[in-house]
Design brief:
Shape: globular
CATH class of the largest domain: Mainly Beta
CATH topology of the largest domain: Jelly Rolls
Number of domains: 2
Strand content: 35-45%
Oligomer: single chain
Number of strands: 23
Radius of gyration: 21 Å
Length: about 325
């Protein structure tokens, strides 16, 4: 009887694991910011607490009443002790949507940080006045020497796996470096971190303002997501990932960002023969000429929800939702 009970329990556990989709596997914390600001959809409770003097505002990223965290107040931050965070050289991926209103004039404004800010020992994403965004560990940074997007939502992902730190912007790998001496530690996790990086005693650093911007859909994984999984997160595409054997019959297409403001990016494994845009009521709006490097300037589409219909020479047809916004 005990043996039968064990088999039943194991079967239920195996069914639960197998039922997880790719974007749920290894997900240890997930903040949608749709209700309470520190509510964790994985833990199903509030796991981050406001620091004194903080405020919360709603800011839509979609045109579907989706809320986002507004960190415009210089005193605003969320912080807690998350004991299950990856430690040492554990693999991890942290992914988040950010809206930066302007190029920062200060040094080192952190969107989030795992570890002690006053020593710089940890793992996080920050920005400085030169437009550099970086993952930081033991003052040994990974820098992306290019201005970051301003005035629109952009998707950022940091991945740490087998001594390699990778930084992704809008689903595209921007920088990857070997950091064999990295061994990140610390369970203190801060969102909207005060800029105390390197500001501790005898560190030669400085203390300044808090991060100012908006944030949405923050995901913390205890595994290394693949490049393709990160690209799908950046396109708000949570459909199943097909195997290589079915790619010919079911082409993979990503359309991002969602919502799109001025520029739309389209990624596909196989170039379609045509791309047509339809209104939500099914009326034809316009046709896009497919190219190898698909970047579309949205000059003729008003705000709203559309369908992008892709057709391939072999007769395959795929429809993707497209959200367009006239305001960033």
């Amino acid at each position: 009887m005990k043996h039968l009970l064990f088999i039943l329990l194991f079967s239920v556990f195996a069914l639960h694991v197998s039922a997880q989709t790719w974007h749920e596997q290894g997900l240890i914390h997930y903040y949608t910011f749709d209700s309470l600001p520190g509510y964790d959809s994985v833990q199903q409770k509030v796991t981050l607490s406001w620091k004194p003097g903080s405020t919360l505002k709603a800011a839509n990223r979609h045109q579907e009443n989706d809320k986002a965290l507004d960190l415009a107040n210089a005193a605003t931050s969320l912080q807690s002790n998350l004991v299950d965070l990856p430690q040492g050289k554990d693999s991890r991926t942290y992914a988040v949507w950010l809206y930066l209103p302007f190029q920062f004039q200060q040094e080192y404004e952190f969107a989030f940080f795992q570890g002690q800010l006053d020593t710089g020992k940890g793992f996080g994403l920050g920005f400085n006045f030169q437009g550099l965004s970086f993952a930081s560990g033991y003052l040994d940074d990974v820098n992306y020497p290019s201005p970051f997007p301003v005035g629109r939502w952009a998707h950022y992902a940091l991945r740490y796996h087998q001594d390699t730190v990778s930084l992704f912007l809008d689903g595209e790998l921007k920088q990857a470096e070997r950091k064999e001496k990295w061994s990140t530690s610390g369970t203190t996790f801060t969102i909207g971190a005060l800029r105390e990086f390197g500001g501790g005693p005898n560190t030669g650093g400085s203390i300044g303002n808090a991060y100012s911007g908006k944030m949405d859909d923050f995901r913390l994984y205890n595994r290394a997501l693949s490049d393709y999984e990160i690209l799908k997160l950046a396109s708000d595409d949570f459909s199943d990932i097909t195997t290589s054997a079915t790619l010919v019959d079911q082409p993979n297409v990503l359309v991002y960002p969602q919502p799109a403001f001025q520029t739309l990016y389209i990624h596909y494994d196989q170039m379609p023969s045509s791309i047509a845009i339809y209104s939500i009521k099914g009326s034809f709006v316009q046709e896009i000429q497919p190219t190898n490097a698909q970047q579309v300037e949205l000059t003729g589409l008003s705000s709203g929800i559309y369908s992008a219909v892709f057709t391939w020479p072999d007769g395959n047809v795929l429809r993707k939702k497209l959200i367009v916004s006239s305001n960033p």
